[in-house]
Design a protein that fits this description.
Blueprint lengths: L4 H15 L12 E6 L14 H16 L3 E3 L1 E4 L4 H10 L3 H18 L5 E7 L3 H15 L1 E4 L4 E4 H11 L16 H6 L2 H9 L4 E11 L4 E3 L4 E2 L2 E2 L7 E10 L5 H7 L7 H11 L1 E11 L5 E6 L10 E4 L5 H5 L5 H11 L4 H6 L7 E8 L6 E6 L11 E4 L5 H10 L36 H15 L2 E7 L4 E2 L12 E4 L2 E4 L32 E3 L4 E3 L9 E3 L14 H4 L12 H7 L4 E4 L7 H14 L12 E3 L3 E11 L4 E3 L9 E6 L13 H7 L7 E3 L8 E6 L10 H8 L1 H10 L7 E2 L5 H13 L2 E2 L2 E2 L8 H19 L3 H17 L5 H11 L4 H10 L23 E8 L2 E9 L4 H10 L1 H7 L6 E5 L3 E5 L1
Helix pairs in contact: 1-26, 3-4, 20-21, 21-22, 21-24, 23-24, 23-25, 25-26
Length: 937
């Protein structure tokens, strides 16, 4: 019977939509299972075949869990704020909302074609005001919270105010920007403005001067993960370090909890390692050094206070405020030049560049508090203001980077840890030796010396033992238009939050999407964007009088804001009264399975964990972590095509002749190849672009053969394959099966359209099991043991594969089972009905159609997954190969129930064995039960 995939797939996609088959109920006695894909950003290019890989895997798992009787939440939405739509708006004037809507419609059309079992009724978009109302609300909660180290959680700012009113800062143990000291009386006497200023020092969302990655071409601040090689990931524009007043999120308060929480998660180890490194916990001491001839003090954090006697110079971060104060007139030009050069590097570049040594001398000296020796103070880009104190005591004998610096600038290298190595040539970084040249530390091992020196530091009153984290607070401002407005207005220069009743603070209309002439962010162009405090509403900007009408914040939130809590909104997407009803977040809890790319390790995945922990602290949700199990899917790579152009001409030479010429390799669109071959359609190539219209070709055997290479699938490489074309030719079920068949989910693998024909052939075979010619024909006869064995072998394999995410081997098992059933001409209902259920998570359309033809008038989706019966897998007979003197001579079928001795007796007495023995007695007989018989004669 002809397998008409197009008609079948359209029919069932329409059925699922009309019947809302995948709509998930919140009111059920079923156990829950929450399957989620990482939030897609709807780009203008639409999906290519690489994008659905993770979605197909999560969809198979979601369908499987429904078959197991779970209430499955499998939603979809769009992370729809983002730079690409804004850049397009700047170029064309088209509002980003229009571009985004068009892109989403295209995405949705493509996703529906692939047959995903999403609950479309729960769709969310971060750029919808009804969604970002709650992103703004969460920001306000963060603003009105502080981190109490005593209770180890975030609390309402009201409890901090109460502490100040009763005790001032006495006994306060809080995460803060600066350590403040005042009495309850001083707090009460302070003006309202001063009180607000003090509270900003503690709020979890706060405004402070910060060094940021500023991209002038994009007119915005970028996060570290939005920059590559000193340039913006989007557009490749230069990025500079710059100090600006910015909103920040106090994620640093959660560093220890974020670190410990990793132990509870089923995540890939490399991803956990990335977060652990990013958080960067280290234990050591904070020590103060006097600056000779200055009142200033340099404070350093060191993990090796036991080596302080070997500290021979100091290095400050170029952006450290002390630099200006201590630089001598003679060194000012050199220092200023170096600071200017450093501003062109991002922090990530500075951290990763371990080989290049550079720096400049300030002209000043610090005094070593233990040796009393003078230590020259340098600046260098390898010291970061955001880690520790922005200053290091350099111990070149025992730190590789300090050693390179000392060698370059000819500075003293002093051994303080015992070693036979020549520390003038190479640093010795071990903790397994003892202290030398270190006065009262001499002879002590690392742990004892560390404890003793910290005690001495504390006795001298110049520091204390401490734990430090590399992770800095997350910058939360972007100077761009297309993002969530920050619900803040300014009164007397101080920020205040809008009342919750005024949310959402909607994005205003602007005439242009570039910064204003005064350098304000694009929202500065808005005519209706001021806050009327009296009437509690947004009014015209020109009405600002700083008495009752005040300016609103002009920055918008970063790209990660909306994606930091979207998994919660899916639980209750239409609720206008709260971001998610508590009973629903209690029911759905953690995401049970989260699938997405590893590139989000230190961005989205860290911020989501932070917001989740905060919301739990404040009592809005009950679970500690958002995503219990996470899988990083690999990449589907493209098969690029190249032509060879002879340099200086418009002549193109075929691949195997290119070695005879000086050529340039040029990417060509894979759609210009003939069918699935490597041959270029030369006429299509000429028509492709005007500069190729008069192309000439040097052919081999009358054909132009392109060169091929496996690389990342992207528009710029012209190797993108559109899933719509695949669905058209091979069906969505073919695409789904093929993507899984390509290889293990976590690995990258090359796409090859030619491979689809094998999967499509399998689908036709599977379809025809249910037909006799053109007639649907299924027998009610009881299956044989052999038929049951095929079915239950498959059940066992598929259950194991799905639960271990080995989807590729399941597809192979389907093919084996269908081949075996076809061979034995099986058409029994008791085999073919469960077979359809087993294959349906992978190929839902064809299985729905077969299920319907089998006489069912409900969807296959909620049928119970077939249960394994191991009895069918027990062999009745075993085919024993019989080897004589190492050579296989014949096979004999024997009952599987026989003992080794019984097998031995039957083999020896068989006619074939008797002919081989010719009356001799075997020297040795080895029987491996159910496997083989070995005989030596």
């Amino acid at each position: 019977m002809f397998y008409d995939h197009q008609q079948i797939e359209k029919k069932w996609q329409k059925y699922w939509e009309e019947n809302q088959t995948y709509k998930t109920s919140n009111n059920t006695d079923k156990p829950k299972f929450y399957v989620l894909d990482m939030f897609p950003y709807p780009s203008g290019a639409g999906l290519h075949v690489g994008h659905p890989l993770g979605y197909i895997a999560s969809d198979i798992y979601a369908r499987y869990k429904r078959h197991q009787g779970f209430n499955v939440l499998h939603p979809v939405g769009y992370d729809s704020f983002g730079l690409p739509a804004e850049q397009y708006a700047i170029q064309t004037g088209q509002h980003p909302a229009i571009t985004t809507e068009q892109n989403i419609n295209r995405y949705e059309e493509q996703l529906r074609k692939i047959g995903f079992s999403f609950d479309w009724s729960r769709e969310v978009r971060t750029s919808d005001a009804s969604y970002y109302k709650w992103t703004q609300w969460i920001f306000i909660q963060l603003y009105h919270s502080w981190y109490n180290k005593n209770t180890d959680k975030a609390e309402s700012i009201d409890s901090l105010i109460q502490h100040f009113e009763e005790k001032g800062t006495e006994g306060l143990n809080a995460n803060q920007n600066d350590e403040l000291n005042f009495t309850a009386e001083e707090w009460k006497m302070a003006s309202d403005l001063d009180k607000e200023d003090i509270l900003l020092n503690y709020r979890l969302a706060y405004r402070a001067e910060t060094t940021v990655n500023w991209c002038p071409a994009l007119g915005t601040v970028l996060a570290n993960d939005e920059i590559k090689d000193g340039k913006s990931e989007r557009g490749g524009f230069p990025v500079f370090q710059k100090k600006m007043m910015q909103w920040s999120m106090r994620i640093s308060a959660y560093s220890e909890r974020l670190l410990q929480g990793l132990n509870t998660l089923d995540w890939p180890q490399p991803l956990k390692d990335s977060q652990e490194y990013w958080i960067g916990k280290s234990q050591g001491a904070q020590v103060q050094f006097q600056v000779d001839g200055h009142d200033e003090i340099v404070e350093v954090f060191t993990t090796r206070p036991d080596t302080i006697f070997g500290a021979t110079f100091m290095v400050l971060a170029p952006e450290n405020p002390l630099v200006e104060a201590i630089t001598t007139d003679a060194q000012k030009v050199e220092i200023d030049t170096y600071i200017e050069e450093t501003s062109k590097k991002t922090e990530r570049d500075r951290m990763s560049d371990v080989k290049n040594v550079s720096g400049a001398f300030t002209g000043s000296y610090a005094i070593n508090p233990f040796s009393n020796e003078k230590m020259p103070i340098y600046i260098s880009d390898y010291v970061l203001m955001g880690y520790g104190t922005g200053a290091v005591m350099a111990v070149p004998a025992h730190d590789e980077r300090d050693h390179r610096f000392a060698k370059k600038f000819n500075l003293e290298i002093k051994k303080v840890v015992e070693t036979e190595e020549d520390i003038q040539e190479k640093s010795f970084d071990s903790k397994d030796s003892v202290c030398v040249n270190s006065d009262f530390l001499n002879g002590l091992n690392y742990n004892d010396a560390k404890s003793k020196i910290i005690s001495e530091i504390e006795t001298k009153g110049i520091g204390h033992g401490t734990t430090n984290y590399r992770q800095r607070d997350a910058i939360f401002s972007r100077q761009r238009y297309w993002g969530e407005p920050v619900p803040i207005y300014y009164k007397d220069g101080m920020p205040y939050t809008l009342p919750a009743s005024a949310l959402p603070l909607e994005l205003p209309e602007v005439e242009k999407y570039l910064p204003t002439e005064d350098g304000d962010p694009p929202l500065g162009n808005a005519k209706e964007f001021a806050w009327d405090e009296t009437n509690q509403k947004v009014v015209a900007t020109d009405l600002v009088d700083d008495k009752t009408i005040f300016p609103l914040e002009l920055s918008t939130m970063p790209g990660w804001a909306g994606s930091s809590w979207y998994f919660l909104r899916y639980m209750d997407p239409q609720n206008d009264g709260e971001f998610c009803a508590k009973n629903l977040s209690d029911y759905w809890g953690q995401v049970d399975l989260y699938i997405g790319g590893s590139e989000h390790a230190t961005g989205h995945l860290l911020y989501s964990r932070f917001w989740n922990m905060f919301l739990k602290d404040r009592g809005y949700i009950n679970h500690d972590e958002p995503f219990q199990k996470l899988i990083n899917q690999g990449m589907i790579l493209g098969m690029s095509a190249y032509v060879y152009r002879i340099e200086g001409t418009n002549q193109y030479v075929s691949k195997n002749l290119a070695g005879n010429y000086q050529t340039q390799q040029i990417h060509v669109d894979v759609s210009l190849l003939k069918g699935t071959s490597d041959e270029l359609d030369t006429e299509a190539f000429r028509a492709w672009r005007p500069d190729y219209a008069d192309a000439e070709f040097i052919l081999e055997d009358g054909k132009y053969i392109t060169d091929r290479e496996v690389e990342k699938m992207s528009k710029s490489k012209y190797n993108v394959v559109n899933p719509d074309d695949i669905c058209e030719e091979y069906g969505a079920d073919g695409l789904r099966l093929y993507e899984m068949f390509l290889g293990p989910l976590e690995q990258s693998k090359p796409w090859n359209t030619q491979g689809l024909s094998g999967v499509y052939g399998f689908l036709k075979k599977f379809w025809n099991l249910y037909f006799n010619g053109d007639v649907f024909e299924v027998s009610e006869e009881e299956p044989t043991k052999e038929e049951y064995k095929v079915l239950h072998t498959l059940i066992k394999k598929v259950v194991y594969d799905i639960e271990n995410f080995s989807f590729n081997t399941s597809v192979s098992s389907f093919m084996i089972a269908v081949n075996e059933l076809q061979k034995i001409k099986c058409n029994k209902r008791n085999i073919l009905e469960p077979l359809a259920v087993i294959i349906s998570p992978y190929a839902p359309h064809i299985c729905e159609e077969l299920w319907s033809l089998l006489g069912h008038n409900t969807s296959i989706e909620f049928e119970k997954f077939p249960v394994l019966n191991e009895d069918y897998l027990i062999e009745d007979e075993i085919q024993y190969p019989v080897s004589v003197n190492g050579k296989m001579k014949f096979k004999i079928s024997l009952s599987a129930q026989l003992s080794a001795k019984e097998v031995e007796d039957l083999v020896i007495s068989s006619d074939k064995m008797q002919q081989i023995l010719e009356g001799k007695t075997p020297k040795k007989i080895i029987v491996v039960p159910h496997r083989i018989v070995n005989i030596v004669i």
